Amino acid sequence: MHIPRRSLLAVFGAVAALGLSACSGPYSISSEVSSFGTWPVSRKPGSFAFERLPSQAQAGAVAEAQARIEAAARAALLKAGFTEAADAKTADVLVSLGMRVDPQERAPWDDPLWWRWQGSYAHWRYGGLGRIGFYHPSDMLDRRYDRSVAVLLRDRRTAEPLYEARASNEGMTQGPSELAGALFEAALSDFPKVRPEPHRVVVQAIR
After folding, report:
1. Its pTM surpasses 0.85
2. How much is the mean pLDDT over the chain?
3. From 87's CA, which of 5, 77, 96, 112 has a CA 20 to 30 Å away?
4. What are phi and psi of 21, to 5 degrees?
5. From CA 62, how far away is CA 11, in angstroms rounded?
6. What confidence tens digit (pLDDT) does each residue in 161-197 have?
7. How crowded is the C-beta side of 123, counted as CA atoms within 13 Å?
């Protein structure tokens, strides 16, 4: 699955970060999940191998970012009952992955209650020693991140798509390293059942 160039650095930073807080311990990550497919009821998970599109197999930062995405998804696949094959030629299914982290600039006046900021286009504020400072609306922009992952499972022999799942959430930061794994776990939480309608899934992660 293609990763837009404008999102590559954000994706790389999201999966490479070691954490954004000195605190440690479990915490909850809520995601919106949708799943699709025709996974046979009688079929067991079996073995898997990751498959990369040509755009994901480039040397350098692209390949490094994709390797980190695969590392984040590996635990979710194992938890869903899969085992990792020695190579793609012996795997039962091939797994394609995608991840995006897109910054979204939002301003206070985007809120229907923007007037609570005491101004529309600009505002005055008292500074120290009785000084008055002028602040432009651009100084109040609030950056949030829309984060999403996608998983596609295909039968290796027939190339038939069997299962597709997506998970997304948003927050004030790109996210610590465990966030990517939690998103993939949420995406595969329904497997092998499918639930096309978006629904909330909460996953416990440890920082």
Report:
1. no
2. 76
3. 5
4. -145, 150
5. 10
6. 999 999 999 876 555 567 889 999 999 999 999 999 9
7. 16
Return the SS3 of 150.
strand
- Structural fold of domain 5-106+143-206: Double Stranded RNA Binding Domain (3.30.160)
Q: Which two tokens stand for residue 9?
A: 């650095």
Q: What is the DSSP string of 114-139?
A: GGGGS-SS-EEEE-GGG-EEEE-GGG
Would you list the domain boundaries of the chain? 5-106+143-206
Please state, in angstroms and rounded to a whole number, the distance separating the CA atoms of residues 113 and 140.
Answer: 15
Structure token digits, residue 72: 């984040």
User: Is the pLDDT reported for residue 15 higher than 50?
Assistant: no
Q: Compute the distance between CA of residue 190 and CA of residue 193 in angstroms, rounded to an integer.
A: 5
Distance of CA 61 to the CA centre of its chain: 18
Amino acid at 138: S
24-64 per-position pLDDT tens digit: 667 788 999 999 999 999 999 999 999 988 888 777 888 88
